[in-house]
Amino acid sequence: MRALFPLLLLSMLVTGCDAGKKDGAAADSADLDAAARVWGVAPELVYVTKVSGFTVFQQSVGEYKDEFAAAYRSDKGSTKFGLFVGRGTITAESCPKQPLGEVADRQVTCEHDGDAWYRKAGDSHEYAVPGNGVVIRLIADADKVDRTILRKAAESAHRPDDVELAALLPTSNGAGT
């Protein structure tokens, strides 16, 4: 599957740069569908976020346990957080019952924060944002990424535009030169 990325990227570079599109417009559905198919996820699960000082780690983008996943790492070091999007919802009743990432053996505490849920279990914490039949989760080690960063990532989570979709795809040697 990974061998298809260069072909997909080339296709997007040729067809995805429509001069008539406004900056920030959602990615072309055909391009998004093609990328999602390569990653093995449903197109409606593909989201990105923007936090100053963090960049998506292209090699991390793809499917993880039936969810879309992408890791964002700090431009200044090894600090990182994960973005996961899966089908479902989260409510006051279900919040503490849903495991937080890989932390299944710890009690999850939940705090409603605007449209999101701030959740903590063990050394991990996350913001979970439900909507449109999906839950967007921004998760990190509590001692490495503070709550403010996760909150900003949650507030900034959105469907990718053409430029953001292209940034999720690995570049190949010679592409775009």
Short note summarizing the structure:
The chain is of the alpha+beta class and 177 residues long. 23% of the residues lie in helices and 31% in strands.
How would you describe this structure to a colleague?
The protein is an alpha+beta fold and 177 residues long. The protein has helices at residues 4-15, 29-39, 147-156, 162-168, and strands at 54-64, 67-74, 80-87, 109-113, 116-121, 124-131, 134-141. Strands 1-2-3-7-6-5-4 form a seven-stranded antiparallel β-sheet, covered by helices on one side. Helix 1 (4-15) packs antiparallel against helix 2. The longest helix has 12 residues, at 4-15. The chain starts with a helix and ends in a 9-residue tail after the last helix.
Helix content: 10-25%
Distance between the termini: 24 Å
Radius of gyration from the CA trace? 17 Å
Number of helices: 4
Please give the number of β-strands: 7
List the helices and strands in order. HHEEEEEEEHH
Give the class from helix and strand content and strand pairing. alpha+beta
What ranges have pLDDT less than 50 throughout 5 or more consecutive residues? 1-23, 173-177
Spatial strand sequence of the major β-sheet: 1-2-3-7-6-5-4
Main sheet summary = 7 strands, antiparallel
The fraction of residues assigned to DSSP E strands is 25-35%
Net shape: globular
Overall average residue pLDDT:
83
List the helices and strands and how they pair.
Layout: H1 4-15, H2 29-39, E1 54-64, E2 67-74, E3 80-87, E4 109-113, E5 116-121, E6 124-131, E7 134-141, H3 147-156, H4 162-168
Antiparallel strand pairs: 1-2, 2-3, 3-7, 4-5, 5-6, 6-7
